[in-house]
Design brief:
single chain; alpha/beta; Nucleotidyltransferase, domain 5; DHBP synthase; five-stranded mixed sheet; 19 strands; globular
C-alpha cells in the first residue's frame, strides 16, 4: 500500500511517501518550487512521487481543517479556501502529528513529548506522556497564549519575515550584550498580560532591531525554562517549530533529549502517517547519484578553502548535514567573511561546525546530542582561538555531531591530512533561496557563485 503524508496551505509544505508502511521519501516543497518556505506542494514534486512509487491509496493531511476554521473564526480571520489537493485527503490533528513524528523517530519507548509552536488548530503547547504507543495529553496551552506567536511577532517587528526568518532573529540576539531594562520590562509586560501576538505587535518607542532580538530571545528562554522545569521525566522528545530555537535548547541537558531533523510543520508530513517506530534519518529527499566525493572535497578545500557538495539524498528539513552543504576550512581566519559574501548573508550570522561525535567534548562544553544541529554548545577557549569562524558572538556553536559514513570518512581524512578536527558546514544556497535539490540547481549555484560543487 502506498500512503502519502502532506503539509500545505500555511507554510512549510512537504510530502512524505510510505510504501507498505516503510518511509521511502520525504521532501520540503520549497526544494522543488524554488520558492522559500513554499506553502504549496508543487506539481513537480507530486509527479516525481507518482512516477517513482505510484499513485497513493490514501493521503493524510497534518491537521484538522474544520477545527482550524473554528479557531480562525474566533480570531476574526477570514475563512480559508477549501483545501485543494490532487487526491482526497484524510485529516489529522496538528499537535498529534508533531508528537507522533517526534516519538516514533526517537529512541525512547517511555518518554514525555513536548510540542511548542505558533499554533495548530487551537493548541500552542502540548505535553504528552507516551509509553508503548499510548499517547496521553497531560498539559496544554491554547490560543492566543503562544511562545511561537510571540517570537514571530518580534521577528516581524525587528524587520524580518515571520514564519520564515525567526532563525535570523535568534542569531541577531547575540549582537547586543546589554539592553535597556525598561525596554525589556515593556515587552515582557505584553507577554505577562496575555497580549495576542497573532496579528503582529506595535512597540512604541525607538527600540533598536538588535535590542528587540536580544529581549525576545531572553523572554523566550525564560518562559521555555519554566515549561521544562515542570517536566518530570528522564526522556524528552521536543518537536514543533520552537524546537528550531537551538540557542534555547541548550537548557535541555537535564534530560535524555531527542529532537528530530525536521521538527517544524514539514516533519508532520511524516507524523500524520506514522504509527510505528522507525530509524531517525535526515537523508530522505531527492537523490543525486554517485560516490560521495571525499577525496575531491578535501582537494578543493586545501586549494581554495571552500567546496560545495551536492551528492546522495537531500536532507529533509532546514539543516544541511553534508549532502547539500557548503563546506569550508574553519582554520582560515577570514573564512566567515568569505562564506557570508558567497551566500549574501548578514555579517552577524553564525556558522556551524560538523565534527566527529568522539571529538565534540574536546572542543565544546557539555550539551544535548546534536546529530541534526539541534542545539548550541559553548566553544572551549582552544576552539575560539583556532577556529573563530564557527563561533558565534555569544561564544557558542551549533554543532553537528557526525557518527556515520560518508561524512565520518570525510572528517577522518580531513583531520588526518590537516590536523583540523572539524569543517564549517552551512547550507548550499544563497540567502533567500531554498537549499539546492537537483543536479540543475547545483549547476546554477556554481554558475552564480563560482564555487565548485562536487
Amino acid at each position: 500500500m502506498i500512503k502519502w503524508g502532506t503539509t500545505f496551505g500555511s507554510h512549510d509544505g512537504a510530502l512524505a511517501v510510505f510504501v507498505d508502511d516503510e518511509l521511502v521519501f520525504a521532501s520540503d516543497a520549497e526544494r522543488w518550487s524554488r520558492k522559500k518556505n513554499d506553502p504549496i506542494i508543487p506539481g513537480r514534486l507530486i509527479e516525481f512521487a507518482e512516477n517513482k512509487w505510484g499513485v497513493p491509496e490514501i493521503v493524510y493531511f497534518y491537521e484538522d481543517f474544520d477545527l482550524k476554521e473554528k479557531r480562525r473564526k474566533f480570531a476574526g480571520q477570514k475563512p480559508l479556501d477549501e483545501l485543494f489537493f490532487k487526491y482526497p485527503i484524510t485529516y489529522c490533528n496538528h499537535h498529534e502529528s508533531h508528537a507522533r513524528y517526534g516519538y516514533y523517530t526517537s529512541p525512547f519507548i517511555d518518554c514525555t513529548v513536548l510540542v511548542i509552536d505558533a499554533i495548530g488548530e487551537w493548541n500552542t503547547m502540548t505535553q504528552w506522556k507516551v509509553k508503548d504507543d499510548d499517547f496521553t495529553l497531560i498539559k496544554k496551552w491554547d490560543y492566543p497564549k503562544s511562545l511561537g506567536l510571540f517570537y514571530s511577532a518580534m521577528t516581524q517587528r525587528a524587520g524580518w519575515k515571520p514564519n520564515e526568518e525567526e532563525y535570523i532573529l535568534m542569531g541577531a540576539s547575540a549582537v547586543v550584550k546589554d539592553y535597556n531594562i525598561h525596554d525589556y520590562q515593556y515587552i515582557k509586560s505584553m507577554w505577562d498580560v496575555g497580549e495576542n501576538f497573532h496579528q503582529g505587535i506595535d512597540i512604541v518607542g525607538n527600540i533598536d532591531t538588535f535590542e528587540i532580538a536580544a529581549i525576545a530571545q531572553d523572554i523566550y528562554e525564560e518562559e521555555f525554562q519554566k515549561i521544562i522545569a515542570e517536566i518530570d521525566d528522564e526522556n524528552l522528545v521536543f518537536v514543533g517549530g520552537c524546537a528550531l530555537n537551538v540557542s534555547a535548547n541548550r537548557f535541555l541537558t537535564k534530560y535524555n533529549t531527542f529532537i528530530p531533523c525536521n521538527p517544524g510543520d514539514g516533519g508532520s508530513a511524516i507524523g500524520c502517517v506514522l504509527n510505528h517506530k522507525i530509524e531517525s534519518n535526515a537523508y530522505l529527499g531527492y537523490e543525486i547519484a554517485g560516490k560521495y566525493p571525499v577525496t575531491e572535497i578535501i582537494k578543493e578545500l586545501k586549494e581554495t578553502g571552500i567546496a560545495g557538495v551536492a551528492k546522495g539524498k537531500a536532507e529533509f528539513g532546514p539543516r544541511a548535514l553534508g549532502n547539500r552543504s557548503l563546506l569550508a576550512d574553519p582554520s582560515i581566519l577570514d573564512m566567515k567573511d568569505r562564506v557570508n559574501k558567497v551566500k549574501g548573508r548578514e555579517e552577524f550570522r553564525p556558522f556551524a561546525p560538523m565534527i566527529l561525535k568522539e571529538d565534540v567534548n574536546s572542543y565544546f562544553e557539555e550539551g544535548i546530542p546534536s546529530p541534526f544541529m539541534n542545539t548550541v554548545r559553548k566553544a572551549k577557549p582552544l576552539t575560539q582561538h583556532k577556529y573563530p569562524c564557527i563561533v558565534h558572538l555569544d561564544g557558542t556553536s551549533r554543532v553537528q555531531e557526525v557518527t556515520e559514513d560518508p561524512h565520518r570518512t570525510l572528517l577522518e581524512e580531513w583531520k588526518k591530512e590537516t590536523g583540523c578536527p572539524m569543517l564549517l558546514n552551512t547550507s548550499l544556497n544563497i540567502k533567500g533561496e531554498p537549499i539546492i535539490n537537483t543536479e540543475l540547481d547545483a549547476k546554477n549555484f556554481e554558475t552564480k557563485t563560482k564555487i565548485v560543487v562536487l
